[in-house]
What we know:
Rossmann fold, binds (2R)-3-hydroxy-2-(alpha-D-mannopyranosyloxy)propanoic acid
Amino acid sequence: LLVFTDLDGSLLDHHSYDWSPAGDWLTRLRLAGVPVVIDTSKTAAEVGRLVVELGLEGQPFVVENGAAIHLPPEWRNEGESGVVELGGGASMIRATLVQLRERHGFRFEGFGDVDAAKVAQWTGLALEDAERASRRDASEPLRWLDDEGRLDAFAAALAEHGLVLTRGGRFHHVMAAGVDKGRALAWLVERYRQRFGGRTASLALGDGANDLPMLAAADRGVLIRTEGAPLKARFDRPERVYLTHEGGPKGWREGMDHWLGEDWLGQDWTV
Ligand code: 2M8
Ligand code: MG
Ligand code: MG
């Protein structure tokens, strides 16, 4: 079994960054040798710190909404760097965004338009964390300041330039077309299978629109309830996705209790 998890609003409380309700499960999974793989919109600079705090060192992790996968040194194949890119770079994305804003008059503000102090203000992160969040390699988060009704036209304009729009907890995110958390999950499930063989069932947990491809790509999913309006999600096989009542790390724990329960090691994960 492999566990893939979103961070903000899922394993971590969106405001306090507390994950203590999920702590018991993290310990149990570690003792059972079940990898917990972070699959997040955060940057490598942010996650590099968090894996240590969360005790999740030694596993690969996915950053920037699936745009890049970071592999531990011992995981790298010959000639492979530690970073597998599944989409194009941030400077191309930024240049296209600036061009579209000028041409169509879309109103938005991206992380690349402002300094870290502003990002700290938007997110509630400490300045040094906001600075880490601003070091983007392959995605751009932005605040949409225009009519919600223009988002479709914005997404269409992005698509013409080979880019895709998704939505996280607070921000919209722009990546190269084809990039999403689900594709990164599939890539890593295959890599775990090559490395360790055997069963590679996956369980994914997330709370945002940007997590839906990850939940759809996993054998089992946990859609963690968000504050405010519940996310409208349609899955091909909805019986595979559990919707929590609690939010954040409490919802994370609830989803684990639901799928893994007491005798979870004995469960049949084949699908
Ligand atoms: C951004 O992502 C969150 C995740 O859902 C959002 O859209 O609200 C990211 O850019 C990340 O790098 C940053 O740490 C986070 C802070 O709120 O915001
Ligand atoms: Mg989230
Ligand atoms: Mg996220």
